[in-house]
Write a structure and sequence with these properties.
The complex is a heterodimer of chains A (115) and B (115). Chain A has strands at residues 4-7, 10-13, 19-25, 31-38, 42-51, 54-57, 64-70, 73-78, 87-94, 105-106, 110-114. By secondary structure, chain A is an all-beta fold. Chain A starts with a strand and ends with a strand. Chain B is mainly beta and 115 residues long. Chain B has no helices and eleven strands. In chain B, strand 4 and strand 5 form a beta hairpin. Classes of the chains: A mainly beta (115), B mainly beta (115). The A-B interface holds A 1, 31, 33, 35, 40-45, 48, 50, 56, 58, 90, 92, 94, 96, 99-109 and B 6, 8, 31-32, 34, 41-46, 49, 51, 88, 92, 94-97, 100-108.
């Protein structure tokens, strides 16, 4: 996963606590995404960013917020963690070329367990 | 109904077999099609990228798109145990850049190639 790192790799947290996951890239790509992956659902988009301070909601954004104050960092915050947010979270980056993005580069994922 | 449907399998084949993985999609505005491969406990990695209807070949892998049927396929020839992974199809809208590169994924198919 050259050029993109996620932290932490694993986290166990208690219900009701806030949690922040970090995605860091060294590729200077404009677009960054947070997905969650759950059995039977594949990858679902939580939030995305198309530039510094430019973010928008994805398909499953309830209970999550994001921030991007620098090109290289995209933070995902679970405001008050619930058991339904136990999942594997992936960050991805891309750069638009023409009208398509020619594919993502994904991070290694963060495995989050809410107990 | 999900916008992109993929048979989750699992699919188990002997080494050397030809593997066929398939997805259907419902939105005719999808114009870009990708296949990702995901090894256990890793992030997905881009395997194939196609734009137009027809076939695209890369080594043992062939991606096929039929826009009239809204059907996409990935064929793996001479399958190897190292091909054992989850395969995810993905689509992107053609919206002149305003889709922000957002991808819609299928649920993923778990493939095992046994020696």
């Amino acid at each position: 996963d050259a050029g993109i790192t996620q932290s932490p790799r694993h986290k166990v947290t208690e219900t009701g606590t806030p949690v922040t996951l970090r995605c860091h890239q060294t590729e200077n790509h404009r677009y960054m995404y947070w997905y969650r992956q759950d059995p039977g659902h594949g990858l679902r988009l939580i939030h995305y960013s198309y530039g510094v301070k430019d973010t928008d909601k994805g398909e499953v954004s309830d209970g999550y917020s994001v921030s991007r104050s620098k090109t290289e960092d995209f933070l995902l915050t679970l405001e008050s963690a619930t058991s339904s947010q136990t999942s594997v979270y992936f960050c991805a980056i891309s750069e638009m070329q023409g009208q398509g993005n020619y594919g993502y580069t994904f991070g290694s994922g963060t495995r989050l367990t809410v107990v | 109904q999900k916008e992109v449907e993929q048979d989750p399998g699992p699919l188990s084949v002997p080494e050397g077999a030809i593997v066929s993985l398939n997805c259907t999609y419902s939105n005719s505005a999808f114009q870009y099609f990708m296949w990702y491969r995901q090894y256990s406990r890793k992030g997905p990695e881009l395997l194939m990228y196609t734009y137009s209807s027809g076939n695209k070949e890369d080594g043992r892998f062939t991606a096929q798109v039929d826009k009239s049927s809204k059907y996409i396929s990935l064929f793996i020839r001479d399958s190897q145990p190292s091909d054992s992974a989850t395969y995810l199809c993905a689509t992107e809208l053609n919206a002149g850049g305003t889709s922000y590169g957002k991808l819609t994924f299928g649920q993923g198919t778990i493939l095992t190639v046994h020696p």
